[in-house]
Amino acid sequence: MTEEMVKSIAAAAAISIGAAVPALAIGMLAGKAMEAIGRNPEAAGKIQTSMILAIAFAEAIAIYALVIALVIKFV
After folding, report:
1. Please, what is the Cα angle at 16 between 54 and 55, to 5 degrees?
2. How would you class 22 by CB atoms within 10 Å of its CB: exposed for 0-12, middle for 13-18, buried for 19 or more?
3. Is the pTM of this model over 0.85?
4. The pLDDT value given to residue 1
């Protein structure tokens, strides 16, 4: 195995894990938010605001994983 192959495999692993976990988190967040809105429709605005903020934080983790994968690949 060459160094380039190892870098490619490491970058692929970093982005695949770094994208799969936030995707699962976002799905769980949205599902629980829909359940909460179904139980208490009057609080939909507060729940939706909190959900969007939490999704943004989860998505930031995926962006960090992309940056790490790019650093692994090209440095």
Report:
1. 10
2. buried
3. no
4. 83
* CATH number for the domain harbouring residue 67: 1.20.20.10
CA distance 55 to 66: 17
Count of domains for the chain: 1
Residue the block writes with tokens 């939706």: 48
Judged by phi (left if over 0) then psi (alpha if -120 to 50, else beta), residue 23 lies in: alpha
Share of the chain above pLDDT 70, in %: 100
- Domain holding 34, by residue range, is 3-74
